Input
Amino acid sequence: METQVILPLTRIHQPLKLEIDFSDKTVKGCRSSGTLFRGFELMLEGRDPRDAAYLTQRICGICSTAHGIAATLAVEDACKIPLTPNAILLRNLIFGADVLQNHLRQFYQLCLPDYFISPALAPFAPRTTYDRRLSPSENARFVQNFWQGAEMSRLAHHLLAIYGGKAPHQHGIIVGGTSMPPDADRNNRFRGILQQILDFINNYMLPDVELLAKRYNDYFAIGRSTGNFISCGMFPQLDHATCHYPPGVWLNGALHPFDPALITEDISHSWFSGPTQAKPTSATSKPDKQKAGAYTWLKAPRYANLAVEMGPLGRQWISGEYRNGSSVMDRIVARVLETQKIATWMQEWLQQLVPGQMTYTPFEICATGTGIGLSEAMRGTLGHWVSIVDKKIAAYQIITPTAWLFSPPDAAGNRGPVDQSIVGTVVGDKQDYTEIGRIVRSYDPCFSCSAHLIESDGTVTQHRIC
Output
């Protein structure tokens, strides 16, 4: 058995380390790990609960609005703060814009270069030409759309800033609602940019993913995950009770209601001390880098003791709109389909805004309370758990999609979804591990969501870039 270390893996949000066990060219074992410590839960202790929406957004610049949403929902749940219809719609619009910029960027800048032959110059060089199947004209089209996709992602950030104030780390979503009321000028600017983005999605992004799936249709059988999916629901409707993306869990071939009480965190192989398994309401994040048997800063979240996949494919699966499989190409296709769906929803939400209606509910921070803020982030289910004592944060826990997806084995030995996807893969060229790179990037990993303080002991002996 041969073990190789892949660090860094390019075109993802670092830092991710992969240890791959090979027998000839077949992967027999995989250990993905987050190499940096994130201390945000500890930073929040003793602070005003309203700070959580601002501080947790600094976990990541690519999905910051998702943390802003989850943090405000957690405090609003603890203090029983209702939202006005305009606040719900504006939050959906702000968050929707951030999802658009992420999906456009992920597909064109982070994913697509795995499949076309790039120009031999920056930012593409050094490059690989292994397993490229496009015709010259198709390849030229993808290169051109690579740059157009970057421009559309930039416009989506502009869209976010209209009602979010700025991007990243918007400040439009606050506890109690949103900070900026709608008006005709902002609505018209929002509508015009959104239409431009939607035209690009319909005329370029959808045809591009259709061509990609046709040329690489064998990737519908590569990188399969556990087959279990989860979604806590995304984009609430005005009735406060339902979501445009419904919550649910697909386990062992059947759909079940989503129950947050069934979420646990396992730290068997994680650099944290405490009970091996705990619910988020009682879990802690005390680091222990010397822990025997541990190799990652990621915990192992589980639902009903099972590893579950999430993200655009999970949301499409739970909603019943796409149930083809759990492969590399299924994830890519689902993400593009979701991009169109969210952009279309955003047009409807913009029309539903009521001029003059409040976007903020006055409130007082509760003296004591506990709350859960659950929202689908770009990459999947995100949860914030808060405990408030004497109007201060007494305890805070965050479970990110990256922790779910790249989790180490739990105490029962069950692999996380990404490790499961990689095991069994046959690698054609062990100089760049193209197949493994394609599998990992299909999940749209964001390791900023799992870490923020680096510690290195210099023990990595091999470095591979794929």
